[in-house]
Amino acid sequence: MASDNNTKDQSLFTDSGRHLNIRRFGWLRRQLPAGWSITKFLLLTTCAVYFILFIQRSNHFLQHTGYPVQVAADRGTCCLPPDHSQDICGRTNCTSPCPQPKPLVFNERPTESNVDHNQNAFFIETSGSGLLTMRQACAVESLAFHNPNLTVNVLFVDVPINKSVFVLQQLKEKYNNIRLVSINLNEYLAGTVLEHWYHCTDWKIGSFQVNNLSNGLRLLTLQKYGGYYFDLDIISVRPVTFYHNFVAVQDATSLNNDVIHADLKNPFIETAIQDFVLNFKQVFSNYSTIWGHNGPILITRALRKWCNVTDIESMDYVPCRGFNVLPTTSFHPVHYGQMKTLFVQPWANETGARLAWLTDRVIGVHIWNKLSKNQPIYKNSTQDYIRLARTHCPSVFSAAPDVF
User: Where are the coiled-coil regions (predicted)?
Assistant: First the structure.
C-alpha cells in the first residue's frame, strides 16, 4: 500500500516529462500529520506563496497609481484627525487616521466657490427613503416654479436617490434649476460644529431622531453655503427672493424654523447652531412645547437673545441687527390648529369664498405634514390643498394619482 502511494506521488511531480526525485522529501513525510501527503502539502504551500506575492504586487500597484492603501476609517468608529492624539469623541486608543472628506462638485452638489449664495435654496430629506412623496415633490416644484433664478437643491441624507421614481424624473425634465443631491453625513459633517454632536452623543435615542437631525442640518447647511432653507411641506405661491436674512412668525408666542434665509456666515446662524449643540435636549414627549425645543423653540430663544428683546412684537430689523422677522401671513396663513381646513371638501356654494386667507402677503403655505399626513387628498376635489397644487405645482399635480 505504501508502495502504491509513492508511485502516485511521483507521477504527479513532473517537469517537462522528467520525474522529480522526491526521495529527499522522506523526512517531510515523517513530519506531516496523519492523512497528509507530500502532494497536498506542496500544493497548499505553493498557493500560499502565490497569494503573498499577489498581495505584495497589489500593494505595489496601489502605491504607484495614487489609490490609497490605508483603509479609510469612519469618524464615528475611532479615527484620529491630523495632528491630534484623540479622536472626535475623546478616545485615545485610535490607530487609523480619519479620511479626508471628498470635495463637493457643483454639477452634483452645491459649492461655495462659483455660485451666488443668495441663489441657493435647500430642502433636506432625512427619513432615508431616497425618494419624495407627491406632497414633498409639490413643495419642491412650487419653489422652482416661482423662483427660476434659484438653484433648488434637494439633499438626500445617506441614501442613494431612487431616480426611477416617475415624479422625480418629471421634476428633472421640467426644471433645470432643480438638483437632486445625495450627501454622505460623515463627509458633510467633517470638521463642523455638529461633528461631535452627531458621533458622540445620544441624539438618536427616542422617537424624534429624524427631527433632531433635520433641525441641526438646516442650520449647518446655511452656515456652510448660505441661501434659503425650506421644509418639504411648504407650497410656495409667489417669489421669495426679495426677502433676505429672515425667519417667520408662527403665532403670537413663537417663531418657526421651517423657512430660513441667511447670508453665508451670517452671525445669527452661527449663534443658533451653537445653541443647538450646547442646549440640545433629548425629547421623549409629543407635547408641542417640548418636542420643538431643538427646532422652532431654539430659533425663538436664539433670536430673543440676538435681538436682546423678550417679545416677538419687538423683533425688528434694527434691534435684530439686520435680521428680519416676517409676519405670520408670510408662511403660516393657516395655523396648525386649523390645518384640517386645507383638506376638507367644501360645499358647492362655498368654493368661491375659500382661500380668502391667500392674500398678496402670503409667500408660502405651511401644510403641517406632521399633523396632516393622514388627511387624504382627492385630485378631482375642490379641497384648498388641491387648488394650491393645481396652480403652483402643475407637473406634480398632473402626475399625481386620484388619491394621494
Answer: none
